Amino acid sequence: MGAPKSKKSVHGRVSSTLERLEQLVGEHGLADIEHESSPETVEDSVRNLKKRVPAKTKPSSRG
């Protein structure tokens, strides 16, 4: 009974989020966004995440 309504609300939320993103990109421009997130900082954050999060392929020693 509630499934169709929830699907519609999720779709509505996604589309409204996309609209907001399009507005932000329209206001600030893609160049600004690309400039703010340089590849080096992205790579550094990925490295830091890998250090904090253990690899899922290894079996956990904490059984």
How does this structure look, described?
Residues 48-63 have a biased composition (Basic residues). Residues 27-63 are annotated as: Disordered. Residues 29-38 have a biased composition (Basic and acidic residues). It is a single chain. With 63 residues, the chain is mainly α. It is 75% helix and 0% strand. The chain has three helices and no strands. The longest helix is centred in the N-terminal third of the chain and has 26 residues, at 3-28.
Brief write-up:
This protein has 63 residues and is mostly helical. The protein is built from three helices and no strands.
What's the β-strand tally? 0
Percent helix, as a range, is: over 70%
Low-confidence stretches: none
Sheet with most strands: none
- Enumerate how many helices there are, as a single number: 3
First-residue to last-residue Cα separation: 41 Å
Shape: flat
Task: Give the radius of gyration.
Answer: 19 Å
* H-E string: HHH
- The average pLDDT is 67
Q: Specify the oligomeric state.
A: single chain
Beta-strand portion reads under 5%
- Secondary structure class reads mainly alpha
Biased composition (Basic residues): 48-63
Biased composition (Basic and acidic residues): 29-38
Region (Disordered): 27-63
